[in-house]
Amino acid sequence: VLAAEQKCIENAIRCGGLAPTKAACIKNILKCLLESKGKLCLEYLRGLSIDEIKAELSRFRGIGPKTVACVLMFHLQQDDFPVDTHVFEISKAIGWVPTAADRNKTYLHLNQRIPKELKFDLNCLLYTHGKLCRNCIKKGGNRQRKESAGNLCPLLNYCEKSNKT
User: pLDDT of 122-165, one tens digit each?
Assistant: First the structure.
């Protein structure tokens, strides 16, 4: 990947969105790893504390809190709770976070309050629900709330009244 043309990487990851930006970041991370560690491997992270891992990964351009949390949870099996668009929107809708919370505040808020043993499964459930539920998919900036009998969202009863239509 380090030797590949950026367009080749972009084409390979296009389905994830922001391909040009992500491809440049991937190449940069690989270049930095090779220069600083002599190899293209992140296994050295396993010997660091969570705070050290967060600091280490955050030094790479293009790596933000969500990506760090994903590496911690999915690769290193650490108890963390990434906040993507779906988790953020659902958490706001059901009133789990303060109204004015942005994604970073939501990340901090949920990581303090969700029990460690629930973080992985709950995160996967919220992400999957947000991807699949027709009622929770954002359309044009507004929540789409189709309330036909076959499409009722099981979370609608937990949403604050201001979010229901």
Answer: 999 999 999 888 777 664 344 444 444 456 788 877 776 544 44
Tokens of 140: 């044009």
Q: What is the DSSP string of 105-130?
A: HHHHHHHHHS-HHHHHHHHHHHHHHH
Count of the separate structural domains present in the chain: 3
Q: Does residue 66 carry a catalytic annotation?
A: yes
3-state SS, residue 59? coil
Q: Is the dihedral of CA 147, 98, 52, 62 positive or negative?
A: positive
**31 and 52 both lie in a single domain:** no
Which residues is 139 bridged to in the sheet? 142
User: Catalytic: which of 27, 31, 37, 66?
Assistant: 66
| Full domain range(s) for residue 23 | 1-41
- Phi, psi angle pair for 142, to nearest 5°: -120, 145
Residues 49 and 121 in one domain: no
Nearest to 65 by CA among 27, 114, 23, 102: 102
